[in-house]
Amino acid sequence: MKSALFMILALSSCATQTVKFKAKEAAEIRLLDKNGYVSDTVLGTTPVVLNQDKLVGKGVQIQSPRRKPQVWYFLPADVHELEIAVELERDETYIDKEKERAKEKEAEKSKDKDAQDKAESTAQKNKLLRTIMASYQALFQEEPQEALRLANEAIVTQPDVAAPEILKGLALVKLKKWESAKQAFRRAKVLDPQDPNIDVLIKSLED
Questions:
Q1: Are 135 and 150 a contacting pair, CB within 8 Å?
Q2: What whole-number distance in Å separates Cα of residue 100 and Cα of residue 150?
Q3: CATH of the domain at 167
């Protein structure tokens, strides 16, 4: 049981008398067992009116989320109807733990998103490689129109990679579309300025 504020109150032993519990927030009232532990017996939730005969000589814990619980013990006495306004303190420990759990959930969410982004990136790269290989195979099999279609598909998948532009240019050369082929090679050169083979391809169309 959390650390709680303890209260002792004298009540009448007359069964007709009542105790009214009220609080700013809904608070659950649980009976304590003979060893002083919180039992499963819920007497009610504030605001609630209870007969004193249920409370005389017993103890209850009043608890609410994010608040420190209070424990009340009731002694026999000649007291008439009673109203108790319960003020539960904020449980800073609970709030700190709640913030920590929120941070953990946020970190877990970020981790899941990173894993998802990585998986999507890998899938996109694999799709690009498959399309490039299929375009190259179509060129090898003397199917330039199919090679061109696949090269354009790869460009849509990954427009910042030079290889699909090179394949597109080679397919256009096969189709004898020289100017379009040269433009494709030039785009490839912009994407990969360190590849000397692209210069050779461009030069071959300028001679």
A1: yes
A2: 51
A3: 1.25.40.10
- Number of helices (H), then strands (E), belonging to the chain: the values are 5, 8
168 — phi, psi (to 5°)? -60, -45
Domain span at residue 116 reads 107-206
Query: Terminus-to-terminus CA distance in the chain, angstroms?
Result: 89
What is the predicted pLDDT for the residue at 46? Answer: 87
- Report how far residue 123's alpha carbon sits from residue 207's, in angstroms, rounded to the nearest whole number: 41
Tokens representing residue 72 in the block: 């009340």
Sheet containing 70-76: order of strands: 5-11, 70-76, 59-63, 28-32, 38-45
The 3-state secondary structure of 43-77 reads EEECCEEEEHHHCCCCEEEEECCCECCEEEEEEEC
Tens-digit pLDDT profile for residues 125-160: 888 899 999 999 999 999 999 999 999 999 998 899
Residue that is written with structure tokens 């953990």 in the block: 104
- Residue 96 belongs to a domain: no
* pLDDT tens track for 51-86: 877 777 788 888 888 788 888 887 765 445 566 666
Phi and psi torsions of 161, nearest 5° = -110, 135
Domain check: are 127 and 86 in the same one?
no
CATH number (domain holding residue 70): 2.60.40
pTM for this prediction: 0.48
Answer whether residue 20 shows pLDDT above 90. Answer: no
Strand (E) or helix (H) holding 168: helix 162-174
